[in-house]
Amino acid sequence: MRMFRKWLTAVLGTVVLAGGSLLATPGAATADPQEAVGHETRPGQPYGGRERARDWLGSYLVNGQQVWCVQFALTAPDSGEEYQPGDELRTKWGTPIPDDVAANISYLLLRYGTTQSPDEAAALAHLLHSWTAAPRSQADLDPNNDFTRIAYDIEGHYAKLPQAAKQAVERLKAEAAANRGPWDAALTAPEDQQTIGQAADWTLTVRRADDKGVGDVPVKLSVTDAEVEGLGPDGVVTTPSDGSPLVLKVTPTGPNPKITGTLSAPAERPYVRQAVNQPDTTQRVVSTGGEQELSVEAATTAVTAPGAVHVSKVDAESQAGIAGVALRVTAADGSPALRQDGTPLLGADGQPAVVVTGADGTVTVPDLRTPQEIKLTEVAPARGYEEAFDSANPPSVTGTLEPGTTLELTLTNKPNTPTVPIHIPAGDPTEPPVPVGLLGLAGLAAVAVAGAGALVLRRRVAGRKH
């Protein structure tokens, strides 16, 4: 299915739709018909007992707008004609057009009503006459009939069309049968909350009555608090040619991303514009008058990118990490900190969560809402750091967490004052050995005492002998 951006201006409402009015310049004189886009066929279909040199299969211009005749053999529209809102389109014979055919006409007017292709224009004109002025019997083709009773010679006109126009007839007919209305359009945002600055997929679908997708449909979008990847200045996106959903990469720029869209879809039935100046002799016409406007809308919420806090607990003197320190995580005012999803960060006791430093003296708190102020407060002193701990004013540190960042915080502890033992109990197996120097003096004293005793003993023995 080919793209139809040529009729985008009409789709978006700048061309008057069926049911509106075409106004000519007041007092303008009747002029020759202004043929726009299409093909002439020769010779023309005879009627009224006369041969005709040519017929025109294509569009006409009325006040600069492209229109299509739907009442074969009446006078064609001209540049000075005025029109007023008309009724539901019927056949030349005043009978209702079957629902499926009416839907086909609406679709083709929507898709090809502003075509600039002569082959497509001739094909559309041929189909319009075939569906609205088809013969009820062979008598309706009698060339002696006047213009009010002559039917459109479907086979005769088709045979005179160029080959490319004949191919366009078959293509348009099949396309209309497949894609006629009613259509349904929907825009879907992600179920989960989005993150500002991060793209996510939104889907746009246009479906026909059998629930199959319609391709090459332009949709004009209006975007709030978001950016849509590839969206041009005109704000128009087009559904894929195969009818599959259009995936939009949407990046929130604020907290409430929202997208609305409008598109033209084929109405169930087209409407005509009736002639004012020559109501009994001028053809009824339709323009892009087979459409209805559909709207789509979707919205979600978005938050800033999450952040994390990385806390280092260190010795004030050695700067070594202190393991096993319990720290309570709160907002600056002592209330619970918030997770990315907006829920409070609580422990099993329902109080603000407590984290404990690891072997290296650090701990990380991830997935926090940003921006917010985070405070880490020591719950109890680590072993060896009790002296400096004040339970009434425990050590704490505060910082502001920005979107998508890791806040680095450091909390120091002053170690306890070291103590030295001043008395060692006697007999303590852990008593330190006597220094070697002292051990030598004791030995000498012992030897001297022993020597003196031996001298006294020898003197006593000697005295007894004498």
From TrEMBL:
Residues 28-48 are annotated as: Disordered. GO terms for biological process: carbohydrate metabolic process. It holds the Pfam family SpaA. Residues 1-31 form the signal peptide. Keywords: Membrane, Signal, Transmembrane, Transmembrane helix. The chain crosses the membrane at residues 436-457. Residues 308-386 form the SpaA-like prealbumin fold domain. This is SpaA-like prealbumin fold domain-containing protein. It comes from Saccharopolyspora thermophila.
